[in-house]
Design a protein that fits this description.
Distance between the termini: 37 Å
Number of strands: 14
């Protein structure tokens, strides 16, 4: 088996009495897109900073590309790309000077590939980065993260300020990256973005990993709408295994269901006559919210 791109063992980070990351065990496979989901304060950025050796863990350890995140930090940084959520560039340097400067720090990069990325993202290289909009600075950051074809790319909120056309180019680049056997670790609040590109997702809440799931398995959750006779009672549906987020309005029932639809229909028809029925896959946002409600 290939070496995991990222592996953590009992990762803990405390600030005084506050525990930001609480014993995370996580394994991210080589050649996959892994979506790291959670609201502000859940521990996403702290976890990323520990992985990159920007801060040291209180307990546990992390490995990137089979290397120790602390002992081998310099070698790891040569082999990865990184886009932080709070991207800071030298404000008096133009975009072109910025790419040359960081390319030089890496010992040189393929300038034809850099030019391809510039064209794809329609990046403005002539202005000083301090004069660029958030979205145009983000384009420079994306080029910096990908320009040396890293084995692992770690990104925190990469879509910030990007227009839909650039987001589409970004998603294509992510797919091309993993098609070459490289790995993308994507931390985001934009759940629709993660759903489009990720193979698996991890959901973090209050420093705990509450779920790690394949995207295809999460899509098994369905939204079901029923029109019933006689007037339905919410309690009859809340007691069903796999049912949650039950809403009853007049003769209609709306719910999320992660079991077999046949079992649901059997239970419903034992009490009610079905006048109308529709079912559709739940999107990742509904699944994400359901995990948070269940955790509480």
């Amino acid at each position: 088996m290939s070496t995991p791109a990222i592996r953590t063992h009992g990762l803990v980070k405390r600030y005084g009495r506050f525990e930001a990351v609480k014993g995370i065990d996580l394994e991210i496979r080589a050649g996959e897109v892994f979506g790291f989901l959670g609201p502000n304060g859940a521990g996403k950025s702290t976890t990323i900073r520990v992985l990159l050796d920007e801060i040291r863990p209180t307990a546990g350890r992390a490995e990137l590309l089979g290397l120790d995140s602390r002992r081998d930090a310099v070698e790891i940084h040569r082999r990865i790309g990184y886009l932080p959520s709070d991207l800071a560039l030298y404000p008096k340097m133009t975009g072109r000077d910025t790419l040359r400067f960081f390319g030089g720090l890496r010992g040189g990069v393929d300038q034809s590939y850099v030019g391809e990325l510039v064209d794809r993202f329609d990046a403005d290289l002539d202005k000083r980065t301090g004069e660029l909009s958030t979205g145009n600075r983000q384009k420079i950051g994306l080029i910096l993260a990908f320009m040396h074809r890293p084995e692992l790319v770690i990104m925190d909120e990469p879509n910030a300020g990007l227009d839909p056309l650039v987001q589409h180019q970004f998603q294509q680049l992510v797919r091309e990256t993993v098609a070459e056997g490289r790995t993308v670790f994507l931390s985001s609040h934009t759940l629709s973005e993660v759903q489009r590109v990720a193979d698996r997702v991890g959901i973090i809440r209050d420093g705990h990993m509450v779920a790690v799931e394949d995207i295809d398995d999460l899509r098994a959750v369905r939204r079901v709408d029923l029109l019933l006779d006689p007037q339905p009672r919410a309690v009859d549906f809340e007691a069903l295994a796999g049912a949650r987020d039950v809403v009853v309005a007049d003769h209609r029932v709306h719910l999320s269901f992660d079991g077999e639809l046949g079992a649901l229909l059997e239970a419903v028809t034992a009490r009610y006559r079905i006048l109308d029925l529709s079912a559709s896959d739940a999107d990742l946002e509904e699944v994400f919210l359901a995990f948070y409600r269940d955790s509480r």
